[in-house]
Structures are given as structure tokens and as C-alpha cells.
Design a protein that fits this description.
By secondary structure, the protein is an alpha/beta fold. The protein is built from 14 helices and 13 strands. The strands form two sheets. The chain has a ten-stranded mixed sheet. The structure holds pyridoxal-5'-phosphate (PLP). Pyridoxal-5'-phosphate binds next to strand 2 and strand 3.
């Protein structure tokens, strides 16, 4: 019996395994309110208070993901609201990335020369408390996509079709994989029909929070539109259950290369051993660590933010100490629209005549011949 089976028997005794593994059932039974959550999780007084004082950014947790939260203090912090969210700290805003000025039509962000970010839905199966787009997501009802948003997509398709420099479309949201098979098929077919779009990327947290969504039929649909890449959001090794591992393997077996994106979070994953374990678990199921992000300064997120100097230390604890494939790129998405900037420790210490002085992973300094011409 898996952890999820034990949890289901305890809290949903009337629900058969087949129903539990139906992703629609998971979505319609998300835990959103105080009483639903309190029935399942042992809440502290502070957690109770925060749940009772919720504002516009909703709480939603799939029953599957809730099955991990009694045992994982780390994951629990990412899903349950905190009273600290009410504190507004230095530089925090509702649109920290300054996406709105780069919005060329509703939901389409064109900041970089050859690629666009396409926000297709504002719905997620579970809401992360540190969400960069908490200004947008989860506020428009309980349905992934309405007819209104499909109308809106037409403008995005037209823009992409008329800008031949766009060779990479990043489909995100919200979580696009919460949409129906038919809608995903339609969306990918429209993007694939644009000749200059070389690659399509889909950003999703579904393999971690709703792994049963990765069905054979979904994989059959996606693989019609290759090359399609997945950018998957993972936070902590506690997420790597047998269900999630199977979802990632299905993705790889469908020929979809996937990378992981992790947000560095205080008290959740700001630890070298935790990060290393997460990256190793991901590689085992053929997900390549891609980005480690500094937590964006959204309003009320100070309690999650890790000093950049510590982030650099954490990356240094990986680089050279484990497979290069296990080392993600540490990046800050600069508030106000500066875009992603890669943060690296200074490895080049200067010159000694015709030699560069370089520091290796053991912090020894080496001389490398590099004469100035
Ligand atoms: C992150 C991001 C991308 C993709 O960046 P990559 O470094 O290519 O992964 C594209 N557009 C926007 C607006 C983004 O924020």
C-alpha cells in the first residue's frame, strides 16, 4: 500500500482507488475551506487563524497532495496560508516581474527576442503560497478554461503567427495541464500550425500535485506535436512518490524532454542535502534540473525569501560535488521587467600575467594559460 492508499482509507473510506486516480475527481474534491482542511490536517492555532482570515488568493490542495502534508512540514508551508502573508516588506508588489508592460495582448508576454510566455489559464489544481502570479491565478471561478479565454487565445495565435522571430512558445498559466484533453489538443494544434514555431514548452506542476493527470491519452496527444518540452515545478524530495515517479516516466517515455524549476524557499528547501536529494530524485525519473529561482518579491512573501548569498552557497554545494546534470541554474527574475539574471559565484579571480586564476569546487586556485593577444 502506498502512502496515498493509507490516506484514502483513513479519510475517504468510501472512495475506491479507481475514483481516487481519476484526476477529475481530484479536482472537484480539492480542499479549499477551513473545515475541509481541518478534517484532514492537524492544524496549529496559527494555521487555523490564517485559514480563517483568507483574502483574495485562494487556498486549494488536491486530496492527493494533501496526503503528503501531515508528514511533510516543508510541503505544508507551501500550501497552507500564513499570517505572515499580511506583512508587506521591502520591494514587494503584486506584479513583481513587471509582466504587464510586456503583455502584447491579454495573456501573452513577449519580453525576450525569440520566445513568448503564453498564460493560457488562470486555474491551478493547487495554489502555491509563493506564487509569482498570485495577482492573477485562482480568482476567476473554478473552471480551467471558459469560452471567453478561448476567444482571447485567438489574439495570441494571431500575434505569434505574425511575428516570425518567435521560435519558442512557453505555454503556462495557471497550469495548462489542468485543461481537458480536447482543449490541450486544440491549443497545441493551433501553435504547431504556425510554421516558424520550432518548439513548444508547457509549464506545469501537475506531476507533483496531480500525477494521475499524466494519462496515456494525454501523452498520445502531446506527442503528436513534437518537439514539446515540459518545464515541471518541483519543490522538495518529499514530492517524489511512486505516483509522481510514474508520471515523470510516462512523460519521458512519450519522448518529452522535461526540466525542473524549483523556487528556493526558506524552511522548505534551503538546505544543501534537501536540494541535492531533490535533484537526484528528479534525474532518476529523467527530469533534468533546469532553474533554481530566487523567490520573487510578491506581496507577503518575506518569510519565504532566502538571502542570495545563501543561494550561492547552496549552488556551490552542488557544483562539482555531484553530477553536472544535477545542478540547476540559479536565477533571479528581476523585479520591474529586467528578466532572468543568472547568479554565479565568482570563479575567475583575475590574472597573473599570461595566466588566469580560477577557483575550483574545492576552493583551490588554479592557473590556466590564457595569454592576452
Ligand atoms: C522565463 C521566461 C521565459 C523563458 O526563459 P528561458 O530562460 O528561455 O527558460 C520566456 N518569457 C518570459 C516572460 C519568461 O519569464
Amino acid at each position: 500500500m502506498t502512502n496515498a492508499d493509507l490516506f484514502r482509507n483513513k479519510f475517504y473510506p468510501e472512495i475506491k482507488k479507481k475514483m481516487w486516480n481519476d484526476w477529475h475527481w481530484q479536482l472537484t474534491h480539492r480542499l479549499t475551506g477551513f473545515s475541509e482542511i481541518a478534517r484532514i490536517l492537524d492544524l496549529s492555532d496559527e494555521e487555523k487563524k490564517a485559514l480563517e482570515q483568507q483574502d483574495a488568493f485562494p487556498t486549494a490542495i488536491t486530496p492527493y497532495y494533501a496526503s503528503l502534508l501531515n508528514a511533510s512540514v516543508a510541503l505544508r508551508k507551501t500550501m497552507l496560508p500564513s499570517l505572515k502573508e499580511k506583512i508587506l516588506s521591502l520591494g514587494e508588489t503584486n506584479d513583481p516581474l513587471g509582466e504587464e508592460p510586456c503583455e502584447v495582448c491579454e495573456g501573452l508576454i513577449h519580453r525576450y527576442p525569440d520566445r513568448v510566455l503564453f498564460l493560457t489559464t488562470q486555474y491551478c489544481s493547487a495554489y502555491c503560497r509563493y506564487c509569482t502570479r498570485s495577482r492573477l491565478v485562482g480568482r476567476h471561478g473554478d473552471r480551467p478554461v471558459t469560452e471567453g479565454s478561448k476567444q482571447r487565445w485567438e489574439n495570441a495565435f494571431n500575434y505569434i503567427a505574425s511575428h516570425r522571430e518567435i521560435r519558442d512558445v512557453l505555454v503556462s498559466g495557471g497550469d495548462p495541464l489542468t485543461m481537458s484533453d480536447e482543449t490541450i489538443d486544440y491549443l497545441l494544434s493551433r501553435l504547431r500550425a504556425i510554421k516558424h514555431v520550432e518548439m513548444i514548452r508547457v509549464g506545469s506542476k501537475v506531476p507533483a500535485v496531480l500525477p494521475m493527470r499524466i494519462t496515456p491519452n494525454l501523452m498520445k496527444i502531446v506527442r503528436k506535436y513534437h518537439p514539446v518540452f515540459f518545464s515541471l515545478h518541483f519543490t522538495h524530495p518529499d514530492e517524489m512518490t511512486p505516483e509522481t515517479a510514474k508520471a515523470c516516466e510516462r512523460i519521458a517515455n512519450a519522448g518529452i524532454p522535461s526540466g525542473s524549476q524549483t523556487v528556493l524557499l526558506k524552511g522548505v528547501n534551503d538546505d544543501a542535502d534537501v536540494l541535492k536529494k531533490l535533484m537526484h530524485e528528479l534525474l532518476k525519473v529523467r527530469v533534468r534540473p533546469y532553474y533554481l529561482f530566487q523567490c520573487d518579491p510578491i506581496a507577503g512573501s518575506m518569510h519565504f525569501r532566502v538571502p542570495v548569498a545563501k543561494g550561492i552557497d547552496l549552488i556551490n554545494a552542488l557544483r562539482g560535488h555531484t553530477s553536472g546534470y544535477a545542478v540547476p541554474t540559479y536565477a533571479i527574475d528581476i523585479p520591474g521587467g529586467g528578466g532572468k539574471i543568472i547568479i554565479n559565484d565568482q570563479r575567475c579571480l583575475g590574472r597573473d600575467g599570461d595566466f588566469l586564476l580560477l577557483k575550483n569546487f574545492e576552493n583551490n586556485v588554479w592557473r590556466y594559460p590564457d595569454p592576452e593577444i
